[in-house]
Amino acid sequence: MRSILLRYATPSTIGLFLVSLITGVALFFHVGPSAFHGIHEWLSMVLILAFGLHLWRNWRPMLHYMKGRPLALSLVITLLASAAFFFLPAGGKGGGRPPAFGLAMQVMAQPPATVAPALGTTAEELTARLAAAGFAVTDPARPLSEIARASGKSPMALARVLIDRPR
């Protein structure tokens, strides 16, 4: 078993890195199928295992890299480049997220009466649907996000009620 793991450590690392590279670039440019998001996240987790096996397989050469300046310098530059993202503006209120997240946040910042017409219903009907789903709508002028929070539920649970049509 050990020989199989060692034999496939580097090829697995290369294959998973290529998947991560392609899906990461596609996600950055917002192109490709929505499956790329799940592929990128999950197979990047598997890449951690492959990298660990690769590191184990090539431990002696890695020790050589650890003694020189190139690895130390590369790690410092990478750390500084990563840290910059904590201090630089993210490019808008959405924090660099896809536009749909920004739209959802804007919708959740509105009261039921503002959102209801866009959903093809009235404020009263929407408020009744929310109440039937366990949301405490004490003040219909409160934003949907506050209604969710005051009800002890997530905004995603409230969004589910918004998009589910009554039967």
UniProtKB/TrEMBL annotation:
Residues spanning the membrane: 12-30, 42-59, 71-90
Keywords: Membrane, Transmembrane, Transmembrane helix
Superkingdom as given in the UniProt entry: Bacteria
Protein's UniProt keywords contain Membrane: yes
Name by which UniProt lists this protein: DUF4405 domain-containing protein
Species this protein is from: Rhodovulum sulfidophilum
